[in-house]
Design a protein that fits this description.
Shape of chain B: flat
Low-confidence stretches of chain A: none
Number of domains of chain B: 2
Strand order of the largest sheet of chain B: 1-2
Shape of chain A: globular
Oligomer: heterodimer
Order of helices and strands of chain A: EEEHEEEEHHHEHEHEEHHHHEE
Number of helices of chain B: 14
Structural class of chain B: mainly alpha
Largest sheet of chain A: 8 strands, mixed
CATH topology of the largest domain in chain B: MetI-like fold
CATH architecture of the largest domain in chain B: Orthogonal Bundle
Strand content of chain A: 15-25%
Helix content of chain A: 25-40%
Radius of gyration of chain B: 31 Å
Strand content of chain B: under 5%
Largest interface: A-B, 31 and 23 residues
Radius of gyration of chain A: 21 Å
Mean pLDDT of chain A: 88
Distance between the termini of chain A: 24 Å
CATH superfamily of the largest domain in chain B: MetI-like
Number of strands of chain A: 13
Helix content of chain B: 55-70%
Number of strands of chain B: 2
Chain lengths: 326, 363
């Protein structure tokens, strides 16, 4: 396994935000020691509840935030390494790593036409030699995401949510990236349109061979699109496994409760299945519990959990779990 | 209604949906290509500016204000060309100073003028608003006063806009410590009493500037006026800077700014292409509202005797001069006061209209 070539390797990534409390500044540990790897052309799903740091992971990867610590390797190049003080200029890598945003309403500039929105990455990286070539590229991208060429001169507010998200995807694809962070790209859309957009992501992956980090809180959507799934809780990854393996054989108690919360479209089965309801609230990331972050709500918690934070360990076939007891 | 009746009625409603007797064969023909194309027609795509102008044109108050402003501006440009009198010239007939031409009412002629007209048969230009206590034509003085007041307003607003825009956008965009320091400077400037600053500056500048500017265009305006401009440039931009900073703070948190950074767009381009166009409406509106406030400031400073140097005048100093003879010649106070009101009201209404037309939140 270690011989395999990875597109993106993230090791011990940390992202703390200083929060002023009175005169002291306390670090808010949004992402704390997260490691994962993504192969070329693969989709890694990232799930977790609101505020667990999913979006922060995506944004820190693209260096929209300055990481607090860790190491990011992309395509063999070390982009950031806090120990060896490597901090590369991101501009050439912005051509290879892109992002699709959650809210299609605020992620498009209301004062720009679709042509200019999609053309901006082309302008910034000077990817065309003349106006005609620019226009040709833009029209090609619009066709790729299923938009009409006649819409090029329109403004973003003239489109529906699904169409707007397609514009956002076309913008991300404009630089021919090999890796795209999809930050809850379907959460803001109607269910009927979610399916269209998710299918489009899959088609694009087949056509262009891009790898995705697909962030979402809807387990069904993530299971549908992902090759592997990582489950996050309070800034930590608690379990990573192949999508089917995670679905059929979840090991971490948090994953178990997440899966039991997925609605079942059959009332008969739903009535007979038991939901695992977690007690209490998510602890504040300002005051993390000692040891395992999940121990305050875990029914298997022992004394050891309060002392040692469990490492992700391989339980066979690349199924990694961070738990002492399961 | 019993159950049976209810189900019957429901069935009827349902069956009417497929009641074939209501249709004929023509209704089931395929749509022609032309008919299909008609379905495709969408609203014409408009730019932000065109869209705003269309809404502005529909606003009668704003359009009325534009007409009033255009009339006033046209008259202050044209009037000095056909009016034979000058703002600093005492009425003379045939090279002789006309002592009887003081304090005349509108459209009146003095005895000397009347005699001159009777003798030569030549028609003299009427004194539309009469003359003042020194025998100067009041109409042309009002015209020049309006010129001064309006240009003070526009110049001050442009100065405030440029300084406030640069300062506010830098503070807002870079945020953090830069913002903290820059906004504390703004707070300090905000706490300076502007009236005191104007009086102090005009005293200091009077000493230093008078030899420097003698003989130039600026000398006509006077050091008071120049110190007023300097005070505007020094003090009045803080409101604009705060406003623009606030706007930019909200706009830069939008995901499209993050998306632009993700693409690799440089800071300057983000400011120009993404942030400033989105606070353009606020900038236009505040600038439009800045003009009347500058005119007001100029007017009350002139009223206090701190305005333009004589014999040049402004609407405020005209009103001040007329104050003494308010009982006998009320018209001389009313005319400049009404013009100030008209200009300020029109600009305020225009500013409101611009806000309604361009502010995307009200769409």
């Amino acid at each position: 396994m270690s011989e395999e070539k990875y597109l993106l390797e993230v090791e011990h990534l940390k992202q703390y935000f200083p929060v002023a409390q009175g005169f002291k500044k306390i670090p808010l540990k949004a992402v704390d020691d997260v490691s994962f790897k993504i192969r070329p052309g693969e989709t890694l799903g990232l799930v977790g509840e609101s505020g667990c740091g999913k979006t922060t992971v995506g944004r820190t990867l693209l260096r929209l935030y300055q990481p607090t610590g860790g190491k990011i390797t992309f395509d063999g190049d070390v982009l950031y390494d806090s120990e060896n003080k490597i901090d590369k200029d991101m501009l050439p890598y912005r051509k290879k790593m892109q992002m699709v945003f959650q809210d299609p309403y605020s992620s498009l500039n209301p004062r720009m036409t679709v042509e200019d929105i999609i053309g901006e990455p082309l302008d910034v990286h000077k990817l065309y030699s003349n106006k005609a070539q620019r226009r040709e590229k833009i029209l090609h991208l619009m066709e790729l995401v299923g938009l009409n060429a006649e819409h090029a001169m329109r403004y973003a507010h003239e489109f529906s949510g699904g169409q707007r998200q397609r514009i956002g995807i076309a913008r991300a694809l404009a630089v021919d990236p090999t890796f795209i962070v999809c930050d809850e790209p379907v959460s803001a859309l109607d269910v009927s349109i979610q399916a269209q957009v998710v299918n489009m992501f899959e088609e694009l992956q087949e056509k262009l061979g891009v790898a995705y980090l697909f962030i979402a809180h809807d387990l069904l959507v993530v299971h549908h699109i992902s090759d592997r799934i990582a489950v996050m809780y309070l800034g930590h990854i608690v379990e990573i496994a192949d999508a089917d393996e995670l679905n059929n054989n979840p090991m971490h108690p948090y994953t178990l409760s997440l899966l039991s919360a997925v609605p079942i479209p059959d009332p008969e089965t739903a009535r007979n299945s038991k939901r695992i309801i977690l007690e209490g609230d998510v602890p504040s990331p300002l005051h993390m519990p000692s040891g395992c972050p999940f121990r305050t709500r875990c029914r298997y918690a022992t004394e050891k959990c309060a002392e040692v934070n469990p490492e992700l360990t391989d339980r066979g076939d690349g199924h990694l779990v961070a738990c002492h007891n399961r | 209604m019993n159950q049976e009746e209810y189900t019957y009625k429901r069935r009827q409603i349902l069956s009417s949906q497929v009641d074939l007797s209501k249709f004929n064969a023509k209704d089931f023909e395929k749509a022609t290509d032309e008919e299909k194309r008609q379905q495709d027609v969408m609203g014409e795509s408009t730019t932000f500016f065109k869209d705003g102008m269309r809404r502005l044109r529909k606003n009668p108050l704003a359009m009325g204000s534009i007409i009033v402003l255009v009339l006033i501006i046209a008259s202050i440009i044209i009037a000095p060309h056909f009016c034979p009198y000058s703002y600093d010239q005492i009425i003379t007939v045939n090279g002789k100073r006309d002592k009887s031409a003081t304090n005349m009412g509108p459209m009146e002629f003095s005895k000397m003028e009347q005699k001159y007209m009777d003798e030569t048969g030549e028609e003299l230009f009427p004194h539309l608003f009469g003359t003042d206590s020194l025998g100067r034509d009041y109409f042309i003085r009002v015209i020049y006063g309006t010129r001064v007041s309006l240009s003070v307003g526009v110049v001050a607003a442009v100065m405030v806009l440029i300084i406030g825009l640069l300062y506010g956008s830098i503070a807002g965009y870079f945020g953090g410590t830069v913002d903290l320091i820059m906004m504390r400077i703004v707070d300090i400037i905000y706490s300076l009493p502007d009236m005191l600053m104007i009086i102090l500056l005009s005293v200091v500048l009077n000493e230093t500037l008078t030899p420097l500017i003698s003989g130039t265009m600026l000398a006509k305006l006077g050091t008071n006026m120049i110190s007023m401009f300097i005070v505007f440039a020094l003090l009045y931009w803080v409101g604009m800077a705060r406003l623009i900073r606030g706007q930019i703070l909200t706009i830069k948190n939008n995901e499209y700014v993050l998306a632009a950074r993700c693409i690799g767009t440089k800071n300057g381009r983000i400011l120009r292409k993404h942030i400033l166009p989105n606070c353009l409406s606020v900038i236009i509106i505040t600038t439009a509202l800045q003009v009347p406030s500058a005119i007001f400031t100029e007017s009350y400073l002139s009223f206090l005797g701190l305005g333009v140097s004589r014999p040049l005048t402004s609407l405020g100093s005209l009103a001040n001069d007329a104050r003494g003879a308010m009982q006998s010649y009320p018209l001389r106070l009313v005319i400049p006061a009404v013009i100030i009101c008209l200009i300020v009201l029109a600009l305020n209404l225009l500013g409101d209209g611009l806000r309604d037309a361009f502010d995307s939140k009200l769409k």
